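Re: the request from the purification team.
They wanted to know what the chain is likely to look like in 3D before they choose a buffer screen. I agreed to run a prediction and write the result into the notebook, where they can find it.
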Amino acid sequence: MTSDSCAGASDTLAKVHTKRGDPRRPLREIVHDDQEMHLAEQLDDIVDRVAEHYELTPSELLVRSRERRLAEPRQVAMYLMRPTTDATLAQVARAVQRHDHTTVIHACRKIEGLRRLDPQLEQDIDEIMRVPEMGGFQVSHLPGSQD
């Protein structure tokens, strides 16, 4: 695939998502090859799974809000993106419409700590990881898990 065709595919994706009014695809706007496209799809899948589990839309999950009912699921999504994908901290931040990789570090540390204290959160994460119709995630151990 040439760089021109990759740029064309990236432009097409950006137009499709803009047409749909889907503001959650900033990572796909910079996709340059199949590997990055696969990563973007994985990150989107995690956002979709977490949003569905918490009965939110993906757009609600990604909105700039510190409201706990939105912030904690968003932090769970960031937490799950790290061990289940090859995404960098910066890529995870962009996938959840944040600018700073330190937001991801904070989210991962927070969820890691909360998992140890909150059995419901532990159960939520286990359920998200085992979505049968989606094939589940391929990860053997999550930070902070009680395995």
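For the purification team: Confidence is low (pLDDT under 50) at residues 1-10, 16-20.
Please add any questions underneath this entry.
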